[in-house]
Design goal:
By secondary structure, the chain is mainly alpha-helical. The chain has 6 helices and 3 strands, in the order H-H-E-H-H-E-E-H-H.
Length: 162
């Protein structure tokens, strides 16, 4: 058995800072969206994905993949969004088991009203605190992390396949 590659003191500080900052950022955005629209950040993300999809609709499996969440969590979220009248489900004509999630006009209007406050919250919490050079560095770091974490194996245990 080999000894783990323990984090150095500096790596431990960076790791804890990262966890602290991302937890605070997610909480900040959740509170803003709950206050302004009565929805959590993950629901807002689903509405954004649907608003950018052709005809404002997307297969549920694709929506789960884009949102990086399990299909059961997506199903629960879409049920809540349906209850609010912001999303509807449609059967897939080419696949009896498949369904689409579609953004309703009411959902689009909620998104349109909520987006300015959300963008302001993101700007204040993140971009206004960084120099242009830091924004560029952060973008490069996040792309590197995402590329390294995106599984290439089609049989990988991915949340949206569960």
């Amino acid at each position: 058995m080999t000894e783990p590659r323990w984090l150095s003191d500096e790596e431990q500080r960076v790791w804890r800072s990262y966890l602290h900052a991302t937890t605070l950022l997610e909480d900040h955005l959740d509170r803003q969206l709950q206050r302004d629209a009565g929805m959590p950040h993950v629901y807002y993300g689903l509405l954004v994905q649907l608003s950018q999809a052709p005809r404002r609709r997307m297969r549920m499996t694709e929506l789960a993949k884009h949102a990086k969440i399990t299909r059961s969590r997506l199903s629960h979220a879409v049920a809540r969004l349906e209850k609010n009248g912001w999303v509807s489900r449609e059967d897939c004509p080419s696949d009896k088991r498949g369904q689409f999630a579609a953004l309703t006009d009411e959902g689009y209007e909620v998104l349109r009203r909520t987006a300015p406050g959300h963008v302001d919250a993101v700007r204040q919490a993140l971009f206004d605190r960084l120099s242009p050079e830091q924004v560029e560095q952060l973008g490069g770091i996040m792309r590197t992390l995402a590329e390294g974490l995106q599984p290439s194996d089609p049989n990988a245990d991915l949340p949206w396949l569960r």
